[in-house]
Each structure stands twice: as structure tokens, then as C-alpha cells.
Records
---
Amino acid sequence: MSPNKLSGLVSHTVPRASTMIAQLKQHGVSHDELLSLMENIPRHEFVEPAFSHLAYSATPLPIGRSQTISQPLTVARMTEWLLTYARLGRVLEVGTGSGYQTRILAHFFNKVHTIERQQLLHQQAKQRLTNMGVNNVEYLFADGQAGWPIKVEMDAVIITAMASKIPLALTECLKPQGILIMPINQPTPQIGCWRKEGDQWKLLATESANFVPLLDGIADE
Ligand code: SAH
């Protein structure tokens, strides 16, 4: 069999971007620009090479340093909440990871600030997105629970690692009416989307999901 015929066969046995998009639509994701963006971002370049053939399947995958990229539906859901509720000015992301969610935020927001506590992942994500021509992102290697080191008010904060409490510094940097998206592990693991209304928080949406934990300090080995 010629190599061309073989690659033709293989491409039918692994999930492709188009399959991923069809599944997202089945689960109610309907934002056309988001769907088209996710169809065109090479998700296989964001996961550990040994898992790149599974990049478009409905599952979280390893990205190195025992961390995972969220499954496509979770990324799409969190982004749709932002597109529905947030002003698309400045966003803070805690948990850069592979940079996949960062890449999507950079498409919709004017400016993205992203923090990662694993130095290797921070460096790889920065290199990856820079190579892709993304130029509206500021990257920081730090414990994101302390927030962005310079006082800038955010229209939205998105945390992509799970905790039991919302770190105070991350709520304080939000503008009035700002949007917070965060996975919380109680009473059961779920992601929530809240709007800051004075000193109250209005819950706008929630969905069950699992995430790696939000950890203290940095890892620079
Ligand atoms: N949004 C990422 C998901 C990565 S998983 C993606 O699309 O790939 C969550 C990430 O949060 C991990 O990389 C983990 O190292 C990071 N993380 C956990 N606790 C953190 C903290 N306190 N500050 C910054 N990053 C943190």
C-alpha cells in the first residue's frame, strides 16, 4: 500500500477537528466564530506528542508536568460564558498550561494576562503562541493566586485549576460587573460563572467538570 493510501486510512480512525466541532454542536455550543476558531486551532500542537492523535477527542489530555488540557467542551463552555456575559477588554487567566485556552482568549479579548506556576509549561506556551503570531498576551511565571503584580482592572478572570475557595486577590482585580469563571470542588466538582455586583456575586451559569488542582507556590525545576 502506498504511504498516501495509508495516511488516508489513518485519518479516518482518529478523531479530527471536524468531529470535535460536530460534538460541540451536539452539546449546545452555538457561537459560530468560536466553533470556527476551534476548528482551525491545531489542538494537536498543544498536547504531549504521544497523545497528539487524540487531540480532537472529547477528553482531557496530558500536557507535561502532570497537568492536563481541558476537554474541548469545557473550554468551549467557559469561552461561551465569557462571550455572553463579559466585556471583551482585558482578561486574566490563571493556569496558562499548554496555552490552548489562552490562544482562544487572545482571539476575542483585546488583552490577555496569563499566569502559570510551572516554569516549563509557562515557557513552552509562550513560545508556542509567539510562533503562532499571537501578540496580545502577557505571560507571567508565578503563583497566580496573588493576581497580576501591577494593578490593572480586569473585565474577566478565568481560573483553569480547581480550588475550594476563590483567592481574594483575583476577585479584587475585577472591575464592577466583571465576570469570574472558576472550577470549585464543593459541594461537587463544577465550574461556575459569576458576575461581581458590589460585594455580592451573582451566579450566572454552572456545569459539572473536573480540573487539576490550584496549587501554592511555583515549580521551577
Ligand atoms: N488552560 C490550560 C489548562 C491547564 S491545567 C490549557 O488550556 O492547557 C491548569 C494549569 O494551572 C496547570 O498548568 C497548572 O500548573 C496551573 N496552576 C495550578 N495552580 C496554579 C497557580 N496557583 N498559579 C498559576 N498556575 C497554576
---
Amino acid sequence: MKEQDVLLDVKQLSIAFQQKKQKVPIVHHISFSIQKGETLGIVGESGCGKSITSMSLMGLNQQTDTTGEVHFEGQNLLSLSEKEWREIRGNDISMIFQEPMTSLNPLMPIGKQMTEALFTHQAIGQKEAKAKAVDLLETVGLKQAESLLKKYPHELSGGMRQRVMIAMAMLCHPKLMIADEPTTALDVTIQAQILRLLKKLNEEMDTAILFITHDLGVVRQICQRVMIMYAGRIVEEGTVDRIFQKPLHPYTKGLFASVPSFKEKKEKLISIAGHVPKPGAIRSGCQFAPRCPYQMAQCLEKDPALQSIEQNHRVACFLMEGGEDTESPTLASESADKTV
Ligand code: SF4
């Protein structure tokens, strides 16, 4: 990866909540980067730290104790003032959420919301702002865009609202868009349309996308690279092709084994035994050890570091050090063609 191609570079990011007098760690020393125009997926179960990580990239979790470095085009975002953040949010980095109603103002017509966002970041006239809003609504596939400007969010369907959110996120042509489960609340056909739209915007506008999801099928459709998180750590990271062909971490293997496949007929789906640890209950050693069928003595003593197995593939598991065979009767039936 060439240094000039790196858009976002996260180094040793740790996030903790202060709960009464106790510090509750959520994210532990994670490091990753995103290249210009790249699509990176972050996958994990609820509570693994993926959403709080994305919030820190938008400066939206100021109530937390956050350490490390988040460099965006060379500037450390964690040292910005609120005024400096306002310059970057929506302009260079934008975000879309699972439920657009939480982000759209229910009392303001769509057009006003879009043009006000433009006025915040650009020296632009009313007529030009309106034309830009219409143009973007058409780009995201909304018909009769001009009349849509007068409508309120509640007058639109869920799929239309999500398209409006995407149009708003693209208003200032951001370099990075963070999409936090943007299709989870939508039905399958609308979900497919929104994913195609995001891919088109990524390709045509060269906007990098950080896609947060629990859905491996979505990652396969839209991402070039994927990062698997468990209990606030990155346990595996690599290109989508590589990880879908040969997942190596026992947790990633478990995720693949637990989703249905159209190609393989399974009697029943395999679930990963046990539960994700609660943030306050995090213990020493590998966090996945209580659920891992390959657990060894050293797994209970220290946390495995994320190591390069080969180019573009990193794994945090002691099995990789010993080159041990991770095939097991319980997790051996995973394949690269899983979808959800
Ligand atoms: Fe399992 Fe040990 Fe690897 Fe953790 S380090 S995933 S417990 S084998």
C-alpha cells in the first residue's frame, strides 16, 4: 500500500466508557487503514465495538475515554476541536445510519435539510443548492426529485428515506462515507438496490466506504477488504476474496458456518457456542477462548497479537504460530459461498 494512497490511518485506538467510578474498556488497541476509494467492511456481533469505532471516526463519542491516533489525510482527528470537527463532518467524512428517521429532521422538508447542509459547508447560492439537491436525489434513483424536496420524511417509504440519507451524505462529495448497518431495517429487494447504489457511488465518485455490518453476505457484495471484530479486538483482516476462500480464525470460521448456503444442503446451521463477553467482563487471555474448540493453555494466559499470515491477511490466534490444523468436525463445513 503506497503511503500517498492511505486516506484513513487508525493506530492503537482504544475506547472506554466511564461507568460510575469504573472504566469499562470497549475497543482495545486496534490499528487499520483505508485507502482512497476503498470499501472496507467491519463485521462482528452486537457489542463487538464496530459501531463505537465508527463513531470515533466522526468525533461523535466525546463522552468516552479515547486514546490512540486517527489520521485522516495526515491530520490526527482525535486532537481536533469541536469547531474543526464541524468542518470535517459532512464535508470530508459523512455517515449514514440504519434508521434514517433518527438522522432526518421530521419537522423540516427534505429540500430544506439538504440545502442547509450545503450552506453549512459551501459558499453556494439558493438556486445552485437546490439544483445540486435535485441532481443528487436523481443520482440515488429517486424520481420526481423536484417535488420530493417539498416532502417531509414521514411522507416517504423506508427505502426512499435511506436514499435521501445517502444523497445527503454525498452532498459535499466526501472522501469517506461511514455506513453503519444502512440496510438492516430494509426488506431484501430494497437492500439489494441500496447496496448497488452505494457501490455505484463508490466507483463513480471514488468515495471510500467503511461498511459496518453483521452480515457476511452484504460484505461479499460491496467490500474489497474485511475486518472481523470480536470483543473490541480485530481478530482477522484481509481481502474479501481471501477471507471468504480461507477464513483462518476460529471465530471467523464459526461465523461462516452459522450462515446458510444456497450451494450446500445442511441439516441444520451450526451456531457458535456461548455468548460474546459483556464489555465489563473482559478477562485475560484470548477473549474467544471460552467459545473456542481449539483452546490451548496459552490462550488463557495472553492475548494473541494480530499478525500477518501473508500479504493482505492478518490473524490474531496462537494456532497460526504453531501452524496447527484448525479443521474440526464442528466447524469444518464452512464454504466460500455463504450468503445470508
Ligand atoms: Fe482459539 Fe486460542 Fe486461537 Fe483464541 S488464540 S481463537 S482460544 S486457538
